[in-house]
Structures are given as C-alpha cells and as structure tokens.
Write a structure and sequence with these properties.
The chain is of the alpha+beta class. It has one helix at 19-30; strands at 2-5, 10-13. Strand 1 and strand 2 (10-13) form a beta hairpin. This is Carbonic anhydrase.
C-alpha cells in the first residue's frame, strides 16, 4: 500500500512500523 504524503510531495511506503504515524499525519491535514 502506498500513500501520497503532501508535506514531502512524494509517495511513501506504508508498513507496520510507520502506519500509525502516517494516519496521524493524514488526520492533521483533514482538519
């Protein structure tokens, strides 16, 4: 699974080690 990271303007690989961090990042941008 890949997500587009707006702050980094790049696609990042989502894995078990960083998925929680990425979810937090996405939620910040949605508020």
């Amino acid at each position: 699974m890949h997500m587009f990271s707006k702050p980094n303007k790049q696609f990042v690989l989502v894995d078990e080690s960083n998925v929680e961090e990425l979810i937090d990042e996405v939620e910040k941008h949605q508020t």
